[in-house]
């Protein structure tokens, strides 16, 4: 089952634009023009002004903020280790509630992406808090595929958020470096929430850090083997994009350590690819990070 967004669409048919809106929120509106295909129309709907061009999607602005989550991450995450007890408070519960009633389907795409990445990570934290100290998320049956969370009015598992929302609607391998599964083998959870204006740069930085570390890639020069995290095997279609090993190596090169990247480029024709075991040990720490000066969200 896939969860498709109920977009407010702009349809061009015989130079007519039809704007379809959810009946539960708005009435249907039809706008006609004889020369609209290249013009810009200003539409006011219930006090909200939206500027759009023919053939583009119509997005509403959002007042949703991840400031609380950002602050909690700064206080309780250091170098990828998470002090989960620091999320046992009303502030985190309020953030989870706001996630549950959010309506991201009409937001700008980067805002949606930031929302779903933050949501996935917040739901993982919620599960870890709920289960208490566990050695690995795999020790709890259903952690990823049975436990459900209320998100945007839907009941979703972590796997559904990842596969049917994030990977389906934002098809780029970069997203794998923004969702953190509470294990040491995952990319590190950062001490900052994803932000609409910087989400792409944050994901690029996360991927570069992960692939240039032993957790993401290890080069054996003697056997000319590039050993990668299981993430690249489990989701190989996201990385090789149908191009097989050759394409996967091309994707990896810009993110490897410079000296490793040079070696791989020079020996690309004979480089083998292998995968090492994934470390499912929890990323929890019992030591609360030292007090930090809290930076403003998105700054």
Characteristic terms for this protein:
299 residues; alpha+beta; 3 domains; three-stranded antiparallel beta sheet; 9 helices; 32% helix; disordered N terminus
Describe this structure as you would to a colleague.
This protein is α+β, with helices and mostly antiparallel strands and about 300 residues long. It has helices at about 65-75, 90-100, 110-130, 160-170, 200-210, 230-235, 235-240, 245-250, 260-265; strands at about 10-15, 15-20, 30, 40-45, 50-55, 75-80, 80, 150, 155, 215-220, 225-230, 270-275. Strands 1-2-3 form a three-stranded antiparallel sheet, with no helix packed on it. Helix 3 (about 110-130) runs antiparallel to helix 4. It is globular and about 55 Å long. The model is unreliable at about 1-60 (pLDDT under 50).
Anisotropy-based shape: globular
DSSP strand content: 15-25%
How many helices in DSSP terms? 9
Write down the overall mean pLDDT. 84
List unreliable stretches of 5+ residues. Answer: 1-59
End-to-end Cα distance, whole Å, is 38 Å
Topology:
Layout: E1 10-13, E2 16-19, E3 29-32, E4 40-45, E5 48-53, H1 67-76, E6 77-78, E7 81-82, H2 90-101, H3 109-131, E8 148-151, E9 154-157, H4 158-169, H5 199-211, E10 217-220, E11 225-228, H6 231-234, H7 236-240, H8 244-252, H9 258-266, E12 272-275
Helix pairs in contact: 3-4
How do you describe this structure in short?
With 299 residues, this protein is α+β, with helices and mostly antiparallel strands.
